[in-house]
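Fill in residues.
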């Protein structure tokens, strides 16, 4: 009676099982296809992106090198493994030596002998291990490429190493690859030997008899050979370790010292010889049925290494080196000094004495008026806050950074601050964050702002040269393409040339918005269903596939962050963290600096980068230019003498251009990079000492000085200036940083790097006199705090619901003297917009604070209507009239400033001074 319901239930179960089976199969196929297509799509859009930048050669080189290295080493491992297995099967007799084999007694249902299962497992194990070993090798694609294309270091610029007399190229290009190869081969044979032992155990080649292992003749010979190979390979590792002593630190100083050369090196040689003897004895063991002799030799390596490699060096360091350290280590200290200076390219720094006289006069300031007009009063930190308040204009715009550059304005080289007005999708209102807004409408930033570094409005704001939207420009500067599609922003992809009306948002204009259509060559055209599928998978956004706003002319702009762009295109370079905007030919460009680095330069002391990686060799070999509108990336070699960039040029032909191929206008905006300058400055704190005695005792060590910023002490940062250096005829754009002695605050030197094309890269270390006091930045800060009038004013401001920000302390070289200048900003607690209210100037023993730089300079160098440089009567009529004219102009400008600020008392004082000067000029004329 239950038969029918049971049959019905069984029928339904079979139907459900069939449906579930089909669903599982379909789901499995879908998942496999999804991940496969996802992987292919990522490769495809990578290829497309390299193609956009005309760098498919780089793509294929990177892709094929990784693939080839993986394939070669996978094949090598599989070949060695299979050769070893075949030898075991052919020469080992297939397990027939010991007939009492457990495998012959076991039976598995359906399969019979377990040998079939073991063979299947073996095949999969070989494939798996080969892929693992190939994948591990592919990580070293860079070392492989560099080794294949290595070039020797020029021995005229880079001497051979002082211990082994090897070319520097061996250590930088070849040794890293040899070290990888040694490690890979060693582990391959260890794995194969471990497998062989297991195989012999299973196959009956090893048996336990009477409490001891009994090995067949072949097993003994086979394992002896494999272990001999391992020992021999391990012995070669001591040779690699010997070379690596040159960039190790065993004693006080980096690089091979007395103990390393006379003790550790000997230990490695002995261990290597013992290893080779042990390997030979293991091979001899093929004919002699005993492992005793090779085991004894191999066991002696451990105590020998301990005694020779640890105990002996320790005793030598303690009882021979330390009591006579300077004498023993002197030649190695000289090696460390020489090669560190070479590694960081500071051996070319030219030292010049700078007298730091205190007789600077108004006449000197007059001759250097163009220098005074380029003194940077605007610190980038408060200026960035001011830009945000005054010029972001809409919530979705932002200024990422403020840079310093120079432009020719009104016929003069002028230092300016500038910043790109970029778009931030994250700042859109939550209700506006739709897919169409984020990717089709809000696609780009717009324009930039620029101000002179020295000009201030009566309200304490920067005097703008370029500002507002659309850009208002107060000088002769052309701007055809203000749109910024590629920049420092972190926005995702943008889709342009769609059917969205009225188009892409361009900029706000009153109560309405202006729109545009992208007319550039950036991105790729998604003109087929296939491309839509590919990009939808790669970018994980199905809207790309289903949107009805795309046309055959639609372009998708992806990978738009400039740091991501260059690190993807050239992952073998290091990049400066501070790209900067350049205006050239009416278009906007980003300029970046790229470095070639190594951690394998012998005897050069290492430094740790912000990324955490240690290096001991660096060159600024490449300048990068990125079009902010089109997105194309260009690389220009700025240091063709660098051997590393020569190797990369061989590996990736066509990607790097000659520096002379950069447009002349862009070359005018190349600057010495701060990251490199800061690294070199850091190394010079110690490695300016060339005398090994002085170096050993650290007698003349330096520090980066400190300054006060926003109420706290911090290290002085390097800064760009347009100035005229001593004995130079023209103004130059330079990068500068001061130095102080170790644990002292007085200034001892300052380092300068030139940025202009005519003298780019020249580095000068100006040495201040050691027999007299030269005030340092922190000492000037202390004198500011001790000045009763200045201190009183700063305290008063801080008590009125506002805070005082003390900007960068700038040391300005003028003639043979140093002028210290510090801007003061006032920020209300209720506002985020600092205002530049005062300028502090210090020279010699004088410290003054005034409303403007000209007023402060006048207060120091002009007293009671007389110049303090010479007796007025000793000069010619022409000189006096010229000086009085300058003075009259200064008083007029001061008066105008006070009038705009509503300070009528000061305005009257300046008019009285102006009247006195004019009266004096009239008397001279009469």
């Amino acid at each position: 009676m239950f038969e029918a319901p049971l049959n019905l239930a069984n029928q339904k179960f079979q139907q459900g099982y069939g449906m579930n089976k089909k669903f599982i199969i379909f789901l499995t196929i879908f998942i496999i296809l999804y991940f496969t297509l996802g992987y292919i799509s990522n490769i495809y859009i990578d290829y497309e992106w390299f193609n956009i930048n005309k760098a498919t050669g780089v793509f294929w080189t990177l892709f094929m090198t990784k693939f080839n290295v993986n394939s070669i080493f996978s094949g090598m491992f599989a070949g060695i493994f299979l050769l070893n297995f075949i030898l075991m099967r052919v020469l080992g007799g297939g397990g027939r030596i010991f007939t009492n084999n457990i495998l012959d007694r076991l039976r598995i249902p359906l399969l019979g002998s377990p040998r079939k299962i073991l063979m299947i497992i073996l095949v999969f194990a070989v494939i798996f291990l080969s892929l693992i070993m190939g994948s591990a090798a592919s990580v070293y694609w860079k070392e492989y490429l560099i080794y294949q294309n290595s070039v020797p270091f020029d021995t005229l610029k880079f001497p051979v190493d002082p211990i082994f007399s090897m070319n520097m190229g061996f250590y930088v290009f070849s040794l890293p690859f040899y070290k990888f190869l040694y490690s890979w081969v060693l582990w391959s044979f260890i794995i194969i030997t471990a497998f062989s032992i297991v195989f012999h155990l299973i196959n009956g080649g090893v048996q336990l008899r009477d409490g001891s292992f009994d090995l067949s003749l072949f097993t003994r010979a086979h394992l002896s050979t494999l272990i001999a190979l391992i020992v021999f390979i391990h012995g070669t590792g001591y040779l690699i370790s010997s070379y690596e002593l040159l960039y190790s630190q065993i004693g006080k100083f980096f690089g091979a010292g007395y103990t390393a050369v006379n003790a550790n090196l000997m230990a490695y040689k002995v261990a290597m010889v013992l290893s080779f003897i042990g390997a030979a004895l293991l091979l001899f063991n093929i004919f002699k049925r005993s492992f005793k002799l090779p085991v004894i030799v191999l066991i002696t390596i451990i105590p020998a290494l301990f005694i020779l490699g640890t105990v002996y060096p320790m005793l030598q360091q303690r009882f021979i080196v330390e009591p006579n350290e300077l004498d023993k280590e002197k030649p190695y200290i000289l090696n460390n000094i020489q090669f560190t200076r070479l590694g960081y390219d500071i051996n070319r720094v030219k030292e010049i004495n700078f007298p730091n006289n205190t007789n600077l006069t108004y006449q000197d300031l007059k001759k250097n008026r163009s220098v005074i007009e380029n003194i940077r009063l605007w610190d980038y930190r408060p200026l960035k806050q001011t830009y945000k308040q005054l010029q972001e204009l809409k919530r979705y715009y932002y200024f990422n950074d403020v840079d310093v550059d120079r432009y020719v304005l009104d016929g003069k080289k002028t230092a300016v601050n500038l910043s790109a007005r970029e778009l931030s999708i994250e700042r859109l209102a939550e209700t506006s964050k739709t897919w169409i807004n984020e990717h089709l409408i809000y696609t780009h930033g717009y324009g930039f702002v620029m101000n002179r570094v020295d000009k201030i409005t009566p309200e304490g704001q920067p005097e703008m040269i370029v500002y507002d939207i659309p850009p208002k420009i107060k000088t002769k500067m052309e701007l055809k393409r203000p749109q910024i599609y590629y920049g420092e922003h972190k926005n995702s992809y943008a889709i342009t040339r769609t059917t969205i009306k009225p188009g892409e948002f361009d900029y706000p204009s009153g109560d309405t918005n202006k729109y545009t259509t992208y007319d550039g060559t950036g991105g790729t055209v998604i003109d087929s269903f296939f491309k839509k599928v590919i990009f939808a998978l790669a970018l994980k956004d199905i809207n790309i596939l289903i949107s009805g706003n795309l046309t055959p002319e639609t372009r998708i702009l992806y990978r738009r962050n400039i740091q991501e762009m260059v690190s993807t295109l050239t992952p073998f370079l290091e990049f400066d963290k501070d790209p900067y905007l350049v205006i050239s030919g009416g278009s906007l460009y980003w300029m970046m600096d790229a470095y070639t680095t190594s951690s394998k330069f012998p005897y050069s002391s290492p430094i740790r980068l912000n990324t955490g990686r240690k290096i001991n060799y660096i060159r600024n070999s490449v300048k990068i230019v990125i079009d902010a509108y089109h997105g194309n990336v260009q690389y220009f070699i700025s240091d063709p003498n660098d051997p590393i960039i020569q190797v990369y040029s061989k590996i990736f032909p066509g990607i790097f251009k000659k520096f002379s191929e950069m447009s002349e206008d862009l070359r005018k905006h190349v600057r010495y990079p701060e990251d490199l300058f800061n690294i070199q400055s850091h190394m010079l704190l110690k490695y300016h000492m060339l005398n090994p005695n002085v170096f050993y005792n650290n007698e003349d060590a330096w520090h980066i000085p400190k300054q006060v910023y926003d109420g706290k002490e911090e290290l002085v940062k390097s800064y760009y200036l347009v100035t005229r250096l001593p004995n130079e005829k023209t103004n130059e754009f330079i990068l500068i940083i001061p130095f102080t002695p170790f644990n002292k605050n007085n200034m001892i030197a300052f380092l300068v790097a030139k940025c202009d094309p005519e003298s780019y890269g020249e580095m000068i270390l100006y040495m201040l006199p050691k027999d007299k006091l030269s005030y340092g930045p922190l000492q000037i800060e202390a004198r500011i705090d001790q000045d009763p009038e200045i201190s009183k004013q700063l305290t008063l401001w801080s008590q009125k619901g506002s805070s005082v920000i003390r900007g960068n302390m700038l040391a300005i070289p003028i003639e043979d003297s140093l002028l210290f200048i510090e801007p003061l900003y006032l920020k209300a607690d209720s506002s985020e917009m600092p205002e530049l209210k005062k300028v502090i100037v210090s020279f010699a023993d004088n410290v003054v604070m005034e409303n403007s730089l000209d007023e402060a300079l006048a207060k120091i160098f002009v007293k009671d209507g007389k110049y303090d440089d010479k007796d007025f009567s000793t000069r010619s009529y022409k000189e006096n009239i010229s000086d009085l004219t300058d003075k009259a102009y200064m008083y007029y400008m001061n008066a105008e400033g006070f009038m705009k600020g509503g300070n009528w008392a000061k305005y009257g004082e300046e008019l009285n001074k102006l009247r006195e000067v004019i009266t004096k000029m009239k008397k001279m004329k009469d």
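Confidence is low (pLDDT under 50) at residues 94-100, 864-875.
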